[in-house]
């Protein structure tokens, strides 16, 4: 399985989602590919936000290898699942889709924790929600993903 986490800047939410999923993948020895990207290129080439680095570190996860990059249309071929954080990311990714196979790859990540509810991961960059709470939401979504896709869990 190849999974791409997507937010706006690719410095706060999606780097955490990538880090948490990679951490669990290593724990369960899964052969999955994980990456993240932003629907904007505002921060292309940058490290994750220091506040994301700190909350990840507190939870034993290193995300400092990550660099922000812009989502591209080629990502539809490179990934099986494209998990967005909010409806704005969702719509911006969907605009680039060229067929229904592409569209069917897109979801809101919190639907793995709360199926069908289309809950957003609030943007912590401007303080819409604290980084610790965002981390907790993403952990729940990742646990939901593992439960859905890995039978032995
Ligand atoms: P992210 O947060 O989408 O979770 O990475 C943001 C980062 C930067 C900006 C907005 C959101 N920005 O406007 O620069």
Structure in words:
This protein is an alpha/beta fold and 153 residues long. Helix content is 40%, strand content 12%. It has a single domain (2-149), classed as 3-Layer(aba) Sandwich (Rossmann fold). A four-stranded parallel sheet has the order 2-1-3-4, sandwiched between helices. Helix 1 links the parallel strand 1 (2-7) and strand 2. Helix 1 crosses helix 6 (131-149). The radius of gyration is 14 Å and the shape is globular. It starts with a strand and ends with a helix.
Task: Quickly list its features.
Rossmann fold, single chain, binds 4-nitrophenyl phosphate, 6 helices, 4 strands, alpha/beta, 153 residues, 4-stranded parallel β-sheet
The number of helical elements comes to 6
How large, in whole angstroms, is the Cα Rg?
A: 14 Å
Q: Strand count, sense and closure of the main sheet?
A: 4 strands, parallel
Helix and strand sequence: EHEHHEHHEH
Proportion of beta-strand residues: 5-15%
- The N- to C-terminal Cα distance equals 16 Å
Q: What is the CATH top level name?
A: Alpha Beta
Morphology call: globular
Instruction: Count the beta strands.
Output: 4
Unreliable parts: none
Q: Supply the CATH superfamily name.
A: Response regulator
CATH topology: Rossmann fold
* Fraction in helix: 25-40%
Strands ordered across the widest β-sheet: 2-1-3-4
Cofactors and ligands:
4-nitrophenyl phosphate
